Amino acid sequence: MLGEIEANPEIPVETLRRYAQEKFQLRVKKRLLYKVRSMAKEKLHGGWAEAYELLPRYAEMIKKTNPRSHALITWGASSRDVNPKFRACFFSFAAQVRGFLRGCRPIIGIDGAHLSGFYKGILLSAVGIDGNNKFFVLAYGIVDTESCDSWTYFMRCLMQMFEQEGCNRDEVRETFPRATRRVCCQHLYMNCKNNGFSGSAFHKLFWIAANAYNEYVFGKAMVKINEYNVNATAYLNSCIEQWSRHKFDSTVCCDHNTTNFVESFNACIKPFRDMPVFSLLEAIRSWCMQRVGATFDKAVDMEDGQLTAYALKELEERTAESRLCYATTCGGGEFEIRDGHVNFPIRLATRSCACGKWKICGIPCKHALRVIYDQRMNPHDFISPWFKAAAYKLTYAEHIHPMADPSQWPDFGLPSIQPPTIKRPSGRPAK
Length: 431
Prior knowledge:
Layout: H1 2-7, H2 13-24, H3 30-45, H4 50-53, H5 55-65, E1 70-76, E2 85-92, H6 94-103, E3 109-114, E4 122-129, E5 135-143, H7 148-164, H8 185-194, H9 200-210, H10 215-228, H11 230-237, H12 260-268, H13 277-300, H14 309-322, E6 326-331, E7 334-339, E8 342-347, E9 352-353, H15 357-361, H16 366-374, H17 389-395
Antiparallel strand pairs: 1-2, 2-5, 3-4, 4-5, 6-7, 7-8, 8-9
């Protein structure tokens, strides 16, 4: 049955039982088939404990096949242990870190996902966004639990990785103390809900405030939230991270106020999260290699000045919306746009509109496009360079190089590490 289990590792035991009865005319107990499926998985992906022995050599092979990549395995040993035990690991390929620094917008989303294998653990990830508004994997690693110490370990590895590539911005020093921090609005809303601030009225007002591109809309929403519940306003004002779009740094050209792009990466690797640690890391490496490689071939064919598919789609949608706006020339490069019953001042020199959307997104809003078309200008000239072919090509200028099978790896003289110490939770395992 190895072929059937390899094709579908989560094949139901009842399906295996029926398969055995139809093909071999045998009635097999379900208890035995559970063991068969477990043995097959171990044969396909290796043993749970043996997988940790390969990690030191795995890190060395990554650095050998992909020069200037960052592969770190951390282990430690107590006085009772003969061999050291695994503690944490961190991986980032040269193509990933260089592509992020050269062509991605300067924003990093971080998140953790629980592993469901025998030894559990948390998979931490750092993800960026490319010019096509697709997530771009920057780094990932495994730690025993999601805590301040484990996140500090992960962020310090990120910091050292950036410094090695010559990035010496103030935000990078001492694990990013001066970097602007955003909080996921979906998580913030769930925190509000847990504190008793819920209902359809609050839900609507919260997302109006979160998605507000200018202070006026944000202020009106907060006034209504204050009328709904004073404590809700106090709780939102106590949030030290940025959560409303009008507060975002305009140089980043990114209006994401949720971590959905990081959650997308977690969803893509979900089928791998119950594998042994080596198979898990190899599956992620292979997935990243295929994704970067496919985009690498597409980016090469792009012409200079060409917009990414995302920017082109946004431009077309906003162009259609701009037809209902009316522009009045004020002189000196200033214009007044009437959209319904509201006027929006625009200044082309500073690329600013009173609605705030242009400055935060990096793509002209419908009001700005009305002026640009009336002045017979090319809207491509007013789109941020992050969404053009030059930056996109730099993001995917390199690819992840392939790597040989473990049977062909040399012996680097590294210690054989043991799996981490685990504490089994009470109750019957869900899996």
